[in-house]
């Protein structure tokens, strides 16, 4: 009955962003290789929800990291590690906004106007590879949150701070593995990102339940 007694706006941002991101990911064409440009262009030309999906993703990727960055004060107060973590998440947010803005404007304009396909491919390749760097920044930020919670020795269960560290490390190494062999991304990304993504949802639940003071 007291689940949402102390409502934290950061929790709502994370939770709503996570849900929208999951929906947008399902709708998005499964593309992991920034150099498989023929497949990417074919997916773009045959995508039914390209604009709608990317608008949804832009909203999601604005809400989710904004909530994560704003929640740094609950990790540890006056802690430089938490501050650095929030900074990395803001870097990820800035990169994602640029990527998705280009995918909502430059790619449709180039792709639908019959412009040189090579230009479209170059913009797409840059955006997809940048997305990996953006996610890497997010995972570094969450790892820093886990370290800050450990340093503060606050009211968090040890498993919660430990899971932040280990799940973010797993996701970070998943990015490295994917970039070394992009075909592995179809399997590696869901397996390695799943735990840290669930951690952020659990963080939202804790915020909304008022158990993080």
Secondary structure elements and pairings:
Layout: H1 9-27, H2 37-45, H3 50-70, H4 72-75, H5 80-104, H6 106-112, H7 117-152, H8 158-180, H9 185-209
Helix pairs in contact: 1-3, 1-9, 2-7, 3-5, 5-7, 6-7, 7-8, 8-9
Largest beta sheet, briefly? Answer: none
Could you tell me how far the N terminus lies from the C terminus, measured between alpha carbons in angstroms?
A: 19 Å
Mean pLDDT across all amino acids: 89
The tally of domains stands at 1
Shape: elongated
Instruction: Provide the β-strand percentage band.
Output: under 5%
Q: State the secondary-structure class.
A: mainly alpha
Helix content: over 70%
Give the count of helical stretches: 9
Kindly describe this structure.
The protein is mostly helical and 213 residues long. The protein is 79% helix and 0% strand. It is built from 9 helices and no strands. Helix 1 (9-27) runs antiparallel to helix 3 and helix 7 (117-152) packs antiparallel against helix 8. The two termini are 19 Å apart. The mean pLDDT is 89.
Notable features of this structure?
single chain, 213 residues, mainly alpha, 9 helices
Would you summarize the structure shown here?
This protein has helices at 9-27, 37-45, 50-70, 72-75, 80-104, 106-112, 117-152, 158-180, 185-209. By secondary structure, the protein is an all-alpha fold. The protein has one domain (9-209).
């Amino acid at each position: 009955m007291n689940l949402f007694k102390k409502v934290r706006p950061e929790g709502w941002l994370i939770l709503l962003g996570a849900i929208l991101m999951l929906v947008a990911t399902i709708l998005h064409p499964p593309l992991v290789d920034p150099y498989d440009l023929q497949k990417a262009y074919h997916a773009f030309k045959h995508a039914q929800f390209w604009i709608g999906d990317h608008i949804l993703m832009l909203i999601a990727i604005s809400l989710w990291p904004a909530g994560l960055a704003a929640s740094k004060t609950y990790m540890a107060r006056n802690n430089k590690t938490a501050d650095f973590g929030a900074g990395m998440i803001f870097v990820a947010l800035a990169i994602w906004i640029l990527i998705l803005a280009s995918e909502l404007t430059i790619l449709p304009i180039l792709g639908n106007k019959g412009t040189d396909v090579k230009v479209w491919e170059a913009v797409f390749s840059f955006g997809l590879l940048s997305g990996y760097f953006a996610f890497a920044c997010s995972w570094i930020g969450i790892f820093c949150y886990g370290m800050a919670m450990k340093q503060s020795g606050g009211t968090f269960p040890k498993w919660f701070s430990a899971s932040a560290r280990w799940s973010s490390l797993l996701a970070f190494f998943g990015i490295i593995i994917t970039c070394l062999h992009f075909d592995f991304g179809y399997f590696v990304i869901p397996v390695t990102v799943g735990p840290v993504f669930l951690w952020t949802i659990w963080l939202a639940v804790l915020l909304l339940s008022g158990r993080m003071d």
